[in-house]
Design a protein that fits this description.
The structure holds two protein chains of two kinds. Helix content of chain A is about 35%, strand content about 25%. By secondary structure, chain A is an alpha/beta fold. Chain A has a six-stranded mixed β-sheet with strand order 6-7-8-3-9-10, with helices on both faces. A four-stranded antiparallel β-sheet of chain A has the order 2-1-4-5, covered by helices on one side. A four-stranded antiparallel β-sheet of chain A has the order 12-13-11-14, with no helix packed on it. Chain B is built from nine helices and no strands. By secondary structure, chain B is mainly α. The chains are: A alpha/beta, B mainly alpha. Bound molecules: adenosine-5'-triphosphate and magnesium ion (MG).
């Protein structure tokens, strides 16, 4: 669906090499997270796909169309939610979306525009201009704008920055629905748990290079020895009680809390041992590996 | 890439460029109209009795085609220029890259939007002068055609300025330092041949001069100089302005990052 071959970008201004030989192949219907620190090159990559930034080198194919030779066809295939929020202040939301449909050659799109406004909780704002929207609403309007032509590939550059928790949740639901309908989605975000919740594939970009590209499950599996179990007791325990847990690097905290690190496959064995030895815990807490920890590990090398 | 790709998209963009100024028509239509009527009233009151060079036409009659042309070209220039600067200001300029509309279609949408506004202001200016001098036009078809061509040329210039300049201050500077002086020296208020010394030669490279003169010829039926030379000059200015705007748009200057 989207193929990026050896794409590099050096900005004329500042002679900054923002992307170094990027290779990517994203299949139809994938839901991919593009992660990376500030300045890693995520927006640069997206802007190349959008035609906002001219690449220095490489080939991009979108839905089978070459970006350089068939750029107009590629525009019908992608919808981009830019990182920077900007809206026209002359027209009302409804007029704006109607015009947006028109640019794509779509004549009567009222029903779909209504659906979008409903999904993105903007229905009651249809008659006002974007000036009267809050920051989070403006961002949601960007999503509506990117979707009016029903793109097969939706690329979102930090769509949830500044959106409140409840609406963020409903946005997740909406993205999942689009994914379910077969839309290929690429999501950039600094909320890692968002990527963990939604995406099936994780790409980490660092200093213009792709340093990790894995299915989420596999990536998280690689770090599964990280599972941390915390037991709490209502009496003091001492180190002799827990000698049998030696190999799981036990730590006792404040006499009543025990922490061990367990590999997923050993989990039930450890729990059986604990109860056989008569350790009577009052609370147990399993800290599953978080994408966030893995991500931090990756970018710190 | 095809030059014409998406007609409905083009029409939508053109309609937007028109819709954008009709929504604020007090500033975009009424204001220039009022200032033109003011010129007419002031000059008319002051110089009623003065007769100008060509066959003793009254100064007010002489002034009408000049003001009409100037009103048209200013409005035509401002429409694409300010539309683009506003889009840069609102960070929506890159939206233009996301439409499946060819560069030629996009450029034309901006230029024709400006042409329409120029034509509208030109016609309204002419209409506003009717109470002062009456409605007679020697060659109406040429008169309206000339206003259209003038608007088209300056809409193209406005498109170029909107692309290469990045803020309102620079745009106002360009207007004050280039467009306004060229109009004043282009025979809007007086015959260029009456200008002192070197200034009279500016007419030879001033795109406004032949345009004003053709409009004036169409209006009065009398002419200073050679109409064919001016016709060819207008054609050259039109081609240069239009092609330059296409090239700059195509290069993505002001819209795409390199
Ligand atoms: N227009 C530009 N001209 C010159 N350099 C630029 C330009 N845009 C971005 N850069 C540089 O390119 C690098 C990558 O920037 P980019 O915007 O792609 O990062 P990002 O991964 O999107 O970061 P963030 O998470 O902060 O949005 C940065 O070093 C940045 O300074
Ligand atoms: Mg970014």
């Amino acid at each position: 669906m989207l193929k990026i071959d050896n794409v590099s970008k050096t900005y004329k201004k500042g002679n900054k090499e923002a992307l170094k030989n990027i290779n990517l192949d994203i299949g139809k219907g994938e839901f991919t997270a593009l992660l990376g620190q500030n300045g890693a090159g995520k927006t640069t990559l997206i802007n190349i796909l959008a035609g906002n930034v001219q690449k220095t080198k490489g080939i991009v194919t979108i839905g089978g169309y070459d970006l350089d030779n068939n750029s107009l066809e590629t525009k019908r295939i992608i919808g981009i939610v830019p990182q920077e929020v900007g809206h026209d202040y002359v027209f009302t939301i409804e007029e704006m979306l109607k015009k947006q449909s028109g640019y794509f050659g779509i004549k009567n799109n009222k029903n779909y525009i209504d659906d979008l406004l409903e999904e993105l909780s903007l229905k009651d704002k249809r008659k006002v201009t974007a000036r009267e929207l809050s920051g989070g609403m403006k961002r949601r309007l960007l999503i509506a704008k990117a979707l009016v032509h029903k793109p097969k590939i939706l690329i979102l550059d930090e769509p949830t920055a500044g959106v409140d928790i409840e609406l963020r949740r409903s946005m997740y639901g909406f993205l999942n629905k689009l994914h379910g309908e077969g839309t290929t989605i690429i999501l950039t975000t600094h909320y890692i748990e968002e990527a963990e919740k939604l995406c099936k594939r994780i790409i980490v970009i660092d200093d213009g290079k792709i340093i990790e590209d894995q299915p989420k499950e596999k990536l998280m599996g690689l770090f599964s020895e990280n599972t941390r179990i915390k037991f709490e007791f209502d009496y003091d325990i001492n180190s002799s009680d827990i000698e049998f847990l030696e190999e799981y690097s036990p730590i006792i905290k404040e006499n009543r809390e025990l922490q061990i690190k367990v590999n997923k496959s050993d989990l039930s064995k450890v729990l059986r041992l604990v109860s056989e030895r008569g350790l009577k815990f009052v609370d147990i807490n399993v800290d599953k590996p978080k994408l966030e920890d893995i991500y931090l590990k990756l970018i710190r090398h | 890439m095809k030059a014409f790709y998406n007609r409905y998209g083009f029409m939508t963009l053109l309609t937007r460029e028109i819709h954008r100024f009709t929504k604020v028509s007090i500033q975009t239509i009424l204001a220039p109209l009022l200032s033109n009527i003011l010129y007419l009233a002031i000059f008319g009151a002051m110089l009623q009795t003065r007769e100008v060079g060509i066959d003793g036409v009254s100064f007010l009659n002489f002034l009408v085609p000049g003001l009409t042309t100037m009103g048209a070209l200013m409005a035509a220039f401002q429409n694409p220029a300010f539309s683009l600067i506003a889009q840069k200001f609102q960070s929506t300029i890159q939206d233009l890259n996301s439409y499946p509309i060819s560069d030629v279609e996009k450029s034309l949408a901006f230029i024709l939007g400006g042409t329409f506004r120029g034509f509208l202001v030109g016609i309204l200016t002419y209409t506003a002068t009717i109470p002062f001098v009456g409605s007679q036009i020697s060659n109406p078809i040429l008169f309206f055609f000339s206003i259209c061509v003038t608007s088209f040329i300056f809409a193209s210039v406005g498109l170029v300025c909107g692309l290469i300049l990045d803020n309102f201050e620079k745009m106002n500077f360009a207007l004050a330092i280039v467009i306004t002086p060229l109009s004043y020296l282009g025979g809007v208020f007086f015959e260029v041949s009456k200008l002192p010394g070197i200034l009279s030669y500016i007419g030879l490279i001033n795109p406004i001069y032949p345009l004003v003169n053709i409009t004036r010829y169409a209006y009065l039926g009398i002419y200073e100089g050679n109409i064919w030379v001016h016709g060819i000059m207008a054609l050259i200015f039109l081609s240069v302005a239009f092609i330059t705007s296409l090239i700059i748009f195509r290069k993505g200057i002001g819209i795409k990052t390199r």
